[in-house]
Design goal:
Blueprint: H1 2-7, H2 9-31, H3 36-46, H4 48-56, H5 64-68, H6 81-98
Helix pairs in contact: 2-3, 2-4, 3-4
């Protein structure tokens, strides 16, 4: 028990903050269309800076960030990302076949 007490409460709080920043960076990179792994890597390596990097990093065109917005709305009523992507693909097919 003495070993755990020597770590200190500050180290525990810093560890929790480090994990939360990795989670946030992973979530942001996934919403921006790059997958979870790049965000997890930047969040682990850069801690708080990794979250800022993903807040500034541009989102891909067909990402959840672009379609649903930065924070997803609860409850539905809105088209899902898959439905929007299918509609975009259908519009591109129609545009390509009419040319």
């Amino acid at each position: 028990m003495t070993v755990l007490a020597l770590i200190g409460v500050k180290a525990l709080y810093l560890f929790i903050a480090w994990l939360l920043s990795a989670i946030a960076a992973s979530w942001l990179s996934d919403r921006k269309g790059y997958g979870e792994r790049p965000g997890l890597a930047t969040g682990i390596l850069l801690s708080f800076v990794g979250v800022i990097v993903w807040l500034v990093w541009p989102a891909r065109a067909a990402s959840r960030w672009k379609i649903q917005g930065p924070i997803p709305k609860r409850g539905g009523g809105e088209a899902t990302v898959a439905e929007v992507r299918a509609a975009q693909a259908e519009a591109e097919e129609t545009k390509g076949s009419s040319s």
